[in-house]
Amino acid sequence: MLITPEVLSQGKPHPEPYLRGAKELGLEAKDCVCFEDAVAGLNSGIAAGCMTVAVLSHAKKEELPKADGYVDGANGCGGS
């Protein structure tokens, strides 16, 4: 299953992409985890009520919204 812009009325940072994805999976957003490396994506996941994990690939932790956890490819995983 893919949730693409063609099936959405609003994209990130609106929560619709994550809400739609959860619905398609038969889940509630609160039971999903979103992995994002950009501000708009994290804001989308947060607004949808998902658990969020910031991927520190293009931005530093301080540059991204408050996530539930962080993944740094060079140093492994870390909590908030």
TrEMBL record:
It comes from the Bacteria. Pfam families: Hydrolase. InterPro entries: HAD-like_sf, HAD-like_SPP, HAD-SF_hydro_IA, HAD_sf. PANTHER family: FRUCTOSE-1-PHOSPHATE PHOSPHATASE (PTHR43481), GLYCEROL-1-PHOSPHATE PHOSPHOHYDROLASE 1-RELATED (PTHR43481:SF4). NCBIfam families: HAD-SF-IA-v3. This is Phosphatase YfbT.
